[in-house]
Write a structure and sequence with these properties.
single chain; alpha/beta; Purple Acid Phosphatase, chain A, domain 2; six-stranded mixed beta sheet; 8 helices
């Protein structure tokens, strides 16, 4: 199976359309969405409807912290911009979309792979895997050979050998990485809707579950239109600029 893994879509229609088209051109068999479907961007309803349509065809989907924020009245753990957009987002969604979010799981497993939004040791606490120490903690918290997670908005790949030593590297777009069965792995595909590594191109990954090969991709999209939509919705200008500059 060739699995397309998307995370941190953040209500960015233009980025999601580009990534879905890119994955279909490469004949992806299945799709997984690892949370934060909404937040920051201007098209939460369209993104949710699109993901819901994929779920109806068998795709997998998780809840992210911004998705959960839409359901909560207390969002003190969010920064002011994120909180403002989540409050705006809730007003844009209908009951069916909110119910879809409410029913989303925190994790799922496919063929010895664990999928979470933030980390494996406490998915519901939204703590970041942003270094080797946190990656090791996450890998040790599961028996899965490969963990996929998002939340960090930058693509990265960690590996751990039998002695517990952890290494990492920044993946190169369109270059296949064989995942040795002698190691444990933690992959972060990067954000579809709001990359933060200085490159505005959208991120996602394709995983060949038979060959155990993982390929990261950067997909250019119409950042100008996505940015202008953020401004037109009355959302913070800094969020529009972040799409243009990728950070």
């Amino acid at each position: 199976m060739l699995l397309a893994v998307f995370t941190d879509l953040h209500a960015n229609r233009e980025a999601l359309e580009a990534c879905l088209a890119h994955a279909k051109e490469r004949q992806a068999d299945q799709f997984a969405f690892l949370g934060d479907l909404v937040g920051y961007g201007a098209d939460p309803g369209w993104v949710l409807d699109t993901v819901m349509a994929y779920v109806n065809r068998g795709a997998y989907v998780l809840m992210g912290n911004h998705d959960l924020g839409v359901l909560q009245d207390d969002r003190k753990d969010m920064n002011p911009n994120a909180r403002l957009v989540v409050e705006w987002t809730r007003e844009q969604l209908d009951e069916g979309q909110r119910n879809f979010i409410r029913d989303l799981p925190m994790q799922f497993e496919i063929e010895q792979c664990l999928f979470v939004h933030a980390n494996a040791w406490a998915p519901e606490r939204w703590e970041y895997v942003d270094g080797a120490m946190e990656a090791a903690r996450s890998m040790r918290a599961t028996n899965a050979a490969i963990t996929f997670c998002g939340h960090v908005h930058t693509p990265s790949l960690y590996h751990m050998n039998h002695s517990g030593k952890v290494g990492s590297f920044t993946p190169i777009s369109d270059l296949s990485v064989p995942l040795s069965r002698l190691r444990r792995w933690l992959a972060q595909p990067g954000s579809v809707g709001q990359p933060r590594d200085g490159n505005p191109a959208a991120c996602y990954a394709l995983f060949d579950t038979q060959q155990l090969e993982l390929t990261f991709f950067r997909v250019p999209y119409d950042t100008e239109t996505a940015s202008q939509k953020v401004l037109a919705a009355g959302l913070p200008a800094s969020l529009a600029q972040r799409l243009i500059h990728g950070g």
